[in-house]
Structure formats: C-alpha cells, structure tokens
Amino acid sequence: MVRTKPSTTRGAPKSTKKRTDQVKSQWKAKKSAQSASVLTDVTECVPVLGSSASATFSASIPSTENILGTKTRSEFKKESYERFVSGGVDTKSSAATETLVKTQRGVVDFAEVDSMVASLCCPQCKNKCLSLCTDSRPTSGLAVFAQVNCSSCEEPVYEQYLATKFKSKTKVFDMNRQAVYSSLACGLGATTFRNFCENMDLAGLHHKTFHTHASQLFTQLEGFRKHVFSETVAYVREVHARYCGTTLGVDDTLNIIVSYDGTWLTRGHSSHIGVGCAVDLLTGLCVDAHVMCTYCQVCESTGQKLFQEKPEEYAAWLVDHLDKCEVNYKGSSGMMEVEAARVIWRRSVNTNKLRYTTLLSDGDSKTFTELNDIKPYGEDIHIDKEECVNHVSKRLGTALRNMVTDCRKRGVTLGGRGRGQLTGNAIRKLQIYYNRAIRSNKDVCSMKKAIMASLYHCFSTDENPQHELCPAGESSWCFFQEALAKHQVPGPHKHLIHTPLNEEKLAAHLLPIYERLSEEHLLSRCVSGKTQNANECLHSLIWSRCAKDHFASRSRVEFAVLTAIREFNFGPAAAADSAQFFGFQTGHHMKRLGAARMHKRVRNSLKAVRDKQSKRRDKVRAAKSKRLEELVQLEGGPAYAAGMF
Q: Which residues form the Mutator-like transposase domain (predicted)?
C-alpha cells in the first residue's frame, strides 16, 4: 500500500481551499513567466540570397534593444524553454510516455529479504523453511546470484542472477555496463567508482573490467555524435528559417554567426588534448565540436616495447593499430584550437549545410587569420570577426597589471598605499568601467568617448575637474555633470570619486594603454556587445565529466564532450535519451531527477540575475578585495609571489 502525503488544506472550509488554489495557480504562473525570461534573447533574421548554386540564407542578429518586447522573441523563448525542459522530446506524446517504464532497480538489504523469504512456504513441501543465500561472484560485478533453499527438501527452490543481460548477451550484465556509463557521465573513473563501491559495501568492478565496458561504449561514439548534432542542426535550421520568414530546402545552405573557442584538458600550454566548440549565437546551441589529441597510450607502451624487442612484427602491428590510434594531430597544443577550427569550418557545409560566415572569438589565438587564409567557403565568401566584450575588457586589466609589475622591476611603485595609487582593487574597477562603456554604447565614437571619460573622471580633483567627456544631464552617472544639470554646486571630489587616480604619477602610463584599447578597428568589432559566456558554460560542463587533474584518453574526452553538448543543448532531461541510445533501459526516476535538476538550475539562474543580488555580490567582492589589500599592506607587502624573493 502506498501512503500519500496528507493535504495541507484537509478539514479547511471550502472558501479557504479556493483561495489556496488561487494562490498556488498564481505562484505557478509567476514561476513559469520568470523561467521563460532566463533564456537567451532571440533576434530577428534577415534573408539574403547567396551566389552559390543552391539557395543560401544569412541570419543577422541586431542588438537586443531593436527587438525588445516583440512577439517573435517571446514566442521563441517560450518554445525554447519547453524544449529545454523536456530534453528535446515532446513529453505529452504517447511515444515519449511509452519509452518510460517504472524502474525495477534499487539498493536492497538482503538481510531483510531473507527474513521475508523465511515467512514464505516452500512450493514443494508447503513448510516455512526457506532461506536466502546470495553470492557476489568475482565475474558478475554488481550482479548478485541468489539461491532460495529449503531445509526440508534439501534442494534449491530458486537460483538465478538478479540482473538482466545486456542486449541478450550471455556474459554482460546490464547493470554493470550502465554503472560504467553512469560513472563516465558523472566524471568518475575506475578508481573512484571502486572507492564508491568500497564505501557502499558493494562488489564493484575490477579496473580492467571497467575499462573493457568503457571501450565498448566508446565504439558507439561516432553514431552518438551524429545523433546529437543531427537533431541540433535540424532545430537550428528550422529556427533560422522560421524567423527569416522563408523555407529552407534540404540542399539549401544557411549562413550563421557562431561563437568559437577552444579548451584544453590540462592547464598550461603542454596539454595532449584540446577541444574546439562552435555555438550558434541565435539559438545558443552547440552545432559542432572537435577533439584534437597528440598522445596514444597504446603507442607509447605496447608500440614502443614491440618496436624495441620485435621490430620485424612492429610494421604489421602498426598497420592494424592505425584505425584505433588516439593520435589525430601532430603539433603544439597552442595550435590545437586553430586546427580544430579548420576541421569544423571545412566540414560545415557537407555535414550540416551551414556556413559560419561570422566568428565571435576572444582574440587569444590566430583562428580568424587562419580561416581567412584557407578560405573554406571559396574565394568569394569572406569570414568576418567580432570580439567578445568580456575578453576585450580583460585585456585592460592584464595590461595594467603587467605595467605595474614592469614598473616595480625598474624601481617605480604605482600600486602602493595611499589615495590615487593603482592598486589591484582600482584595476578591477577600471576594467568594469571599460566593460560598461562598451556595453552601454552602440557606435565606435560613443564607445571611445565613454572609455576616455571613465579615465579622466578618475583623474579629476577639485582643483582640476575633467568631466567634459562625461555624459551630461540629470540622469548622468557623473556626479559633476548631474549637479550642473540640476543647477547645483558639485560636491567634493574626495568623497564622490570612488576610484581616484593620481594624474601626475599615472597619466603617462595609463594613456597609451587606453588609447591602444580604444582604437577604431577594435571597438568596431564590439558594437554588437556579444560575449562567449555560452562557450565558457559548455567548457565547464565538459570538464565536470572529465577531471583536468587526471589522465584521459581521446575517447574518454569525446564521450565527455558529446554528453555535455547533449545536456547543454537540451537540458538535463535529455539524459534519458542519451542512455537509450547506448542501449540502456530508462525509467521514471531518470526523467524525474533530470527534470528536478533542470528546474533547480533555472531557479538558481533567476536568483543570480536579479539586480539586487548582482549589486550585493559586487559590493561583497569589492569589500573582500579591499580587506585583503589592507591585510597585505599591514604585513609589510606581499609575502608570496612567483620569483619575487
């Protein structure tokens, strides 16, 4: 008998129940509206016919202000959210419901089962003399062999493994293979999984058995890749065509804007594995990814040993091993991002019927230069570049910190104690001002004026106010211009300048950096105000499935990349679809927990984007940074720094 939770309104008057239901419905409607607002803003598309044999369509993405409040945007956000929560499947359809069965799997205490069996009658002698005997055999892993014996009959009444075979195979249990799959999907390796089983008092799997199961899963990665990206690309093409107001044929090629960035398995510049990911800016979905690898463990161990001991057999072994070799790139780790971009751009038309004609990058590699050199779409199609606003603003902070370090080496102190010094907290604030100046303006001249205004505002004093470049009006962020607009006397700079800078000491060092980072060719690429936050989020999701501080093969990283992209594109609810592709039976617990994880993620996102919370975080971060600087100064300066002592 299943016990249900008693209703909180039991015994209450009908009017109270009615009011409670109304409050609940209003609360649910409010939460649904808030959740829909979390998703990325969607922009309108403008169709442009290309010069190729097949029709080509290009999607242009204007600023958010141009489309704010339009019907198109709200409809797309609602549709995307519903698709994201459902994992890309229509949960209301009968087909989706049929794939979910009631899970028949759980952790069982066999001592309790034994007492239950003892209360049953033997089917032969009809006596209550049954006992349960379980055996976790070394070759069965997590599968348990159970035997029910009768002390009167002295014969086993029942004996069988309490686990199903994987795809009707004789030696592979479904729960063992799925346990390995779940461990890999959660970022656990053979050792960590064995430690978990040890603390849970489970039989576990031998590390060789674990890797054997993993190798069998990795053989399906190519099919899983097609499964992930085919559905994603079809949805991207559908959305672009819908908001372009046109119809795309099967052979029509679509021009889109993508954000491309690379990430590496290990920190530093000596990683054996790198990943390049391309994310469509309109939908926010990853449309392609490629893993580069320079190391094969089999080549380094078996191959080297065979080459030294039996060189006559090495050639035959190498020919047989080439199809299984993990190495697909030879070169430096810094060029992995560029090489992955070449692969992705060259196959975009044949594989996805897409052209990535505009590239949003961080400027950390020469990907843009290389792509225009190889011309993947022919001589007539040029690839344009846009800059990530966050990465451009980071260049200012990096330049200022490097300048302070170089001056310290020459005996010039710029970041000491006292008012007007270029401290770490001041550099952080200047970087924020620079970022805001770019985001709040939509043309190059206004950006440059706002950037220089943020600097001269900090240089200003009562004796020499320099607020000519600050925006005028009563709504100006500059206290001086606000006071003038209200016909009031401006307050003292000592109390109203939050980041004071000593002009005599710092102007000669800061002005060249600001002039370099406010050049027209750089700011013109920041007009759209876009960022690579989606790529950074995807990278975090990838490495949560494959730890950076442990060795991993290319196949292991590809598994992490594809499962992360599947969840990134369609949410945690897509975990059931991924498990079904690899041949595992999914139940209602997987769907329920995935939906709960998705709703918790949306709820946390709503909390993070609130203005009040955002301002509070900035204040807490600034106060913490200030306390640390004061503590360092009280201790007589830095006590730890690379090569400083």
A: 106-478
